[in-house]
Structures are given as C-alpha cells and as structure tokens.
Fold:
Amino acid sequence: MKFERFSSQAVFLNRENIDTDQIIPARFLKVTEKVGLGSALFADWRSDPAFVLNTPDAANAKILVSGANFGCGSSREHAVWALCGFGFRAVIAPSFADIFRQNALKNGLLPIVVNAPTIAMLPANAHFTVDLLDQTLSVDGDSRILFPIDSFSKTCLLEGLDELGYILKHEAAIAAFEKAGTRA
Amino acid sequence: MPPKTLYDKIWDAHLVTPETDAPAILYIDLHLVHEVTTPQAFEGLRRRGLKVRRTDRTIATMDHSIPTISRSLSSVDAQAADQVRRLESNCIEFGVRLFGMDDRRQGIVHVIGPELGLTQPGQTIVCGDSHTSTHGALGALAFGIGTTEVEQVLASQCLLSRKSKNFAVQFDGALSPGVTAKDMVLALIGQIGTGGGTAHVLEYQGSAIRSLDMESRMTICNMSIEAGARAGLVAPDDTTFQYVAGREFAPKAEAWDRALAKWKTLPGDEAAVYDRTVRIDVSTLEPVITFGTNPGMSIPITGRVPDPANTADSGARARLEGALKYMALKPGQQLLGHPVNVVFIGSCTNSRLSDLRSAAGVMRGRKVNPAVRVLVVPGSQEVKRQAEAEGLDRIFKEAGAQWREPGCSMCIAMNGDQLEPGESSVSTSNRNFEGRQGRNGRTFLASPLTAAATAIEGHIADVRTLGGF
Ligand code: SF4
Structure:
C-alpha cells in the first residue's frame, strides 16, 4: 500500500515512555491474525470513559501525538497493528523506541519525529496535513514543520515497496555469503 | 584497519551487503521462534508460497502462553491453546525443529538458547522478542525483531539493519554480599533511563563483569532493552568458553578448536572507540528495587520513594505522580515493610539454576508468610531437572511456595498466572509497566534474593538483615 498525503485531526497523549504493554496489553496477543486489534488499542486506559481515545473526535483521527520514547518495551508488532486497526496512520513524538519504529514503518504507520517544544505548541483542535514526499507536517494548512526520515524508508512507504521482496532480490549475494561459510 | 569494538567485528562479519542509503543486509546465524509473535509470519510465507530458508538455523519452542501449573492445555484459555497448536502445525508444515511442551529441552527461549549451546560467541541471533538481548552475554549480537522481520528472516535468513552506536558500560569494583547482577542492571537503567540506550548497542565491561558467572551476565544483558538498547554484549572470555563447552549443540572436537580460535579474536581492539561510556562503581551498590511503572524508576532497598514536589521539571513531576498513584505509594515513604500479595521468582531475567539456588538459600528451613502467594517458575525443563536433583524444589515446597513447570508465567501474564486487580508483587522479571502482570497489578522488580526475603517476611524486605545467601 502506498503512503499518500492525508489530513486529519490528532489525538494527544501527553505522556512519555508509552510502552507497548500499554498500547496493547499482553492478553490480546493470543491472536493468530493481524487484523481486528483496533478494539484492543490502549485497552486498559480506555476503561476510563474520560480517556481521549473514547472521545467522539478520536474515532476519525489518523494522527496520534505522544511524549518521548514512544513504543518502548516489548517488540510486539501487535502494537502497530492495533494502532493501524484503530485508524492511525502516523504517530508524532520527540523520539521512538527502535523496534517500534521499525515495526511501524513496515506497516505503513509513519513515525514522525518532532521535538518536544514544537509538539507542546501544536494546537489541539487543528487540522494537520502529513506530506511524506515533502517531509512536512502542516497545521491548518500553514506553519509547515519539517520532519526527518531516511531515504530508504521514505521510498518504501511512498512506493509501497515490500522489504522482503527487496531482500530476496539479493539472493545471489546471500547464497555467496552462505557459500563462503564464514560461519562456525 | 581502524580499531574495532566487539560489536563492529560481529557486524562486519555478517554483512551480505553493506549499509548505504539503504540498510545493510545482515546474515542471521540463529533464529529463535516462539508461539506469540510468529503465527502471522508463517501465514505470510504461506501467502507468498515461500519456504523457511534455513531450517537448520531455526529453532522453535513454546513459553509465553503455555500453562505452568501443569502441561495440559486445558489449564489455559482456548485462544492460548490455539496459539500453541498453531506453532506445532506451522513447525510441522515448514520443517522447523520444535522443542514443544513435553520436550526435555523446552523452556523460555532465552534460557534454552545458551543452555543448549545453540547460542555461541560471535553469532547474530534474532527472535521475535525484545529480550533476545540476553544472548549477548555470550558475545553474540542478539536482538529482538517484530513479526514482519520474523517473516523476512524465515524466508531469507537475513535482516535489513542499520548499524547502532557503541556504548560502553563499565562496571568496576566488587559487589557487597546480598547485591547481585540484577541490582547492577537496575542501577544502570535508573541512571541512564529507559531511553538512555536507544540506537546503541551496550557493551558491558570492567572487572565487575569479568568476575560474574555466565548466568549473571545473562541477567544483565537481558535488561539492555529496558534501557532502550536493542542489544547488550559481554566480550567472550574463559568463563564464556567453559560455559559453552560440551553443551548439546556446541561444536565438538576439531570444530571446537576452530571455533575457539575464532572466538578468541572477538573482543574489541584495545584502541576501539565508543560513542558513549558510563562508569558505575558496584562496590557502593545496595540491593535495588523499582517503585514505579518503568524499570528506570528504582531506589536502593533502604531508600525512600522520591517526592514529586522535589522535582523541578513539570513533565518529570507528572510522570512521578502518575507512577506513585498507580503503585499506591506515598512520596517519601520507605518500601521496606510495604506489604505485597505475590512473589514471583522466574522469567528470562532470573529463572536459571543460580537464581533458584540463591532464592532457595534464603527460603531454606523457613516458611513463606501465609499472606503471600509465591510462585517459583524454572526457566526450562533442564533448570527444573537440575533444581530437583539438588532438592531445591523441596526447599521451596516445604517453605510453602508453588513449584511450577517452565514458562514465562507471571512475567507476562498470558497464561492465567497473574496478579488480580490491586494486588502487588515483588518480581524477579524485567518489566513493571502498568498491567504487565495483570490488569491493575503493581510490580516491584528486584533480585531473587530480595524476592525470597520478601516471601518470608510478607512485605518488602532487605535480604541482608535476613541472611541465608
Ligand atoms: S520471561 Fe517474560 S520477558 Fe522473558 S521472554 Fe518470557 S515474557 Fe518475555
């Protein structure tokens, strides 16, 4: 699936170090499918009726804004599947945990790194536009914030490139490596 | 050639294609598979009509959702049982070797890798599990991956990867009695924070690491991910080689000699440069225990819970307040004497024979406080057999603790072993996140010694006043 420009409201979670056990508690990991996990997203926090994901606006939001070190802890890709299942297409945070970031990119969920002071100034009810080609986040059609992404990940997302396909194109190199038998 | 670190050497030796604008293609020596993070990966292979490329480098076991009360799937819910059966059928279909629930080699994936000699110095190892960092204790580059990557490795034995930075963690000095490897790593995470190691590979060095046995080194490498580092490493030495020698899958005879010669070249060059270094003098450490909702929120066991009012940064203050509220703790209170409902001794951090021995030492001839439910869950069938051969199981049972079958159990609470809402535990596992051990459960992470002392006293206790270690 190709990643296209989109606009949406955002849901704000003003919290750092949100771990993947919060994003999807372990009791939901007994599934054997990737789909249908949106309802398990932040399941424990959602038991509080006042939690932001329970507000009517959240249902249509495609952007989640969080504090630093988002997605730390367990490597469970279910966390990304749950975010995507709920309808999110991008997460904005000052930093992401390494494994989460990889998992997100592989599922077309864009991790957008924006520094904390800038995040603190994002207006709550604004309309955000995410343009990956330009690497910009605009707020109410204005104030464009540039965000970084490596060119490989960008191309993969924009062209809907499949990483496994990419690896398998290097079959000759893999076979040569195995033949060289540098392994014990 | 520029001087290299241990990490640099392993990385370079596994490059199928180097890193350019595109990530490197890294060859994977050993892929460990378990039931929770792989069904969707096998399904992906099926959809694409692909095979497992190297069934000889792929090993499966089951640990996360299996019962520990017995080996009958009737003691877990239908979904967990289905996941276990799915792994069995996937392994048969794709020709992957499985150490299933009744196999004598079954256990927590990060316990059995080293124990069986599958994990060897200089290897690259991946598993769909963040605590794969454990295997770094043997000088292997080992890290957790997501399910999409599991599928990629199954199909190609390769992974797209970008090189991390080198981070030296220097532990010097001698540990005081009652202070362990668990306390060392909790102290480190407390110091650098749960994001402190992000984008780095930690290499644990120094005299305090050299004098640790392999199982203690595994405890430390295990929790690298809790500092945000994907991998942790200890350079292999004689302790490492003696540990690997003779294990089931370790090289034998001439192959051993060849391997050993190679392993001896792995330690980083004298002049190797690290992007970051921290030093910790372990001789000043007390037993460490967490009070909050991430592994970086810890205090010395005799210390007091921090007061948010003394925290200048508003974000940090709010985090601390939230954690204390969740944990039902008061600012400035001591943890010593704080009552708990459960003590859990187990997990890939602390479920090996030496961990069980130290817990048993404290519990020998004593009784568990009747207010506390105590679970002792060995990390593998082999650990269980050895513990029973030494009579450790009797010590635990006579003390009033439950002696279980091997598995992840209450570390992740997927199999029914869990805290009830509002209950609290002292746990030898690695994560104290909200709800990790059961919805609204409260977790205090500590060493097996602290856990055993707490089991006896019925409240958080300092093993040094109890003795038996
Ligand atoms: S014991 Fe806990 S941390 Fe270790 S593999 Fe199992 S669930 Fe993960």
User: Anything to note?
Assistant: Chain A touches chain B through 51 residues (CB under 8 Å). The pocket of iron/sulfur cluster is lined by residues B 63-64, 108, 110, 129, 131, 347-348, 408, 411-412, 429-430 (CB under 6 Å). The radius of gyration of chain A is 18 Å. Strands of chain A lie at 6-8, 10-13, 63-66, 90-93, 110-113, 128-131, 136-139, 142-146.
